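Consider this one:
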Amino acid sequence: MTTDTTAKPQRRTQAERSEAMRVRLIEATLKCLETDGYAGTTVTRIVETAEVSRGAPVHHFPSKAALIAAAAEHLMRRIYVQLGKAVSQLDASDDRLSDIIFASWKEVFGATEFTILLELLVASRRDAELASMLQHLWIAAFDTLGAAAD
């Protein structure tokens, strides 16, 4: 009896492929925000960066604003993870809040993610929809940071 050691990998489900495409579009959006700024982050530029068809963003996101919102939420999650890692590595201290602030500055505010976040914050001055979405994300961030400080 012979066994086939070159078995084909199992095909991903439609849901897995769809989620992978959403992440690919989100990552491309973040890259465009970093390199081209908010004004230069067009759907055409995102499609080029992600190397996907022109219809992919439309299929997965109802609008450019929805894609930017998903990218901002993804960005904030990455920042939360970085903050969580920084806080979890802190030693016991009498001044935990200062330690958290310094660790946050070192691990988050010096990273690429912060550049992208700044771009979104500046753009939100003139975009009410973006400002509202970022406000909700900031409230969640403050709640997370407050819980970590406690």
Remarks:
- The chain has a mean pLDDT of 85.
- The chain is about 75% helix and 0% strand.
- The radius of gyration is 19 Å.
